[in-house]
Specification:
166 residues; alpha+beta; six-stranded antiparallel β-sheet; four-stranded antiparallel β-sheet; 3 helices; globular
Length: 166
C-alpha cells in the first residue's frame, strides 16, 4: 500500500515534467543579459597627439549619441551626450550592472535639437572598467535605456582608447 501512495505522485510529476518547455540550443547564450549590436552603429576611435576620442554612432554622420574624449595619459574623460532640453542635467551610464551618474553642464546643441550635456569622469571608474571588458555601455534616464554596443572586432578600438587615455 505504501508503494502505491508514493508511486502515483511520482508518475504525475514525471508526466508534468515531460510537458515543460525546453530551451532551444540557439537561445542558450541569450540569457547572459548582454545587449546585441545595432546595425550601422559602432564605436569609432579617433586619435592624435593632443586628444583621443571614442564616439558611438554611425560612421561618416552626425548621429553620435555619446562621445568620450581625453588628453592622452591624463586618466580623465570628458563625456558628451546630446539629449532633449527637459532631460535632467546628468549623464547616467551603465555597463554590466555597474552604474554611474555624472553631474553635467548643458549647452544648446549646435548640431541637433536639444542640448549637449558634458561631464567629467575617470578612466578608472567602475562603469568604464566594465565597459572596457564587455564592449558595451548604456545611457539611461527615467524613461529610457539605450545600449551602445560594439560590433564584433571593435573591442580593440575601445581598449586602445583606454590605453591612450591612461
Amino acid at each position: 500500500m505504501r508503494l502505491t501512495v508514493w508511486t502515483a505522485p511520482a508518475l504525475a510529476a514525471l508526466a508534468l515534467a515531460g510537458c515543460a518547455p525546453t530551451l532551444k540550443s540557439e537561445f542558450a547564450g541569450a540569457s547572459s543579459g548582454a545587449p546585441i549590436p545595432v546595425a550601422g552603429y559602432d564605436w569609432h576611435l579617433n586619435e592624435d597627439a593632443e586628444e583621443a576620442s571614442l564616439s558611438y554612432g554611425m560612421a561618416e554622420t552626425d548621429d553620435v549619441p555619446l562621445d568620450l574624449s581625453c588628453r592622452p595619459g591624463s586618466g580623465a574623460l570628458q563625456i558628451l551626450q546630446t539629449v532633449a532640453e527637459d532631460h535632467p542635467k546628468v549623464i547616467a551610464l551603465e555597463s554590466g550592472g555597474d552604474t554611474e551618474t555624472y553631474p553635467a553642464k548643458a549647452e544648446p546643441s549646435a548640431m541637433h535639437d536639444g542640448v549637449d550635456l558634458t561631464a567629467v569622469a575617470r578612466t578608472t571608474d567602475p562603469v568604464f572598467l566594465r565597459f572596457r571588458k564587455l564592449g558595451w555601455l548604456a545611457t539611461y534616464g527615467l524613461d529610457y535605456r539605450t545600449p551602445l554596443v560594439a560590433q564584433q572586432g571593435s573591442d580593440k578600438q575601445i581598449d586602445r582608447f583606454f590605453i591612450l587615455c591612461g
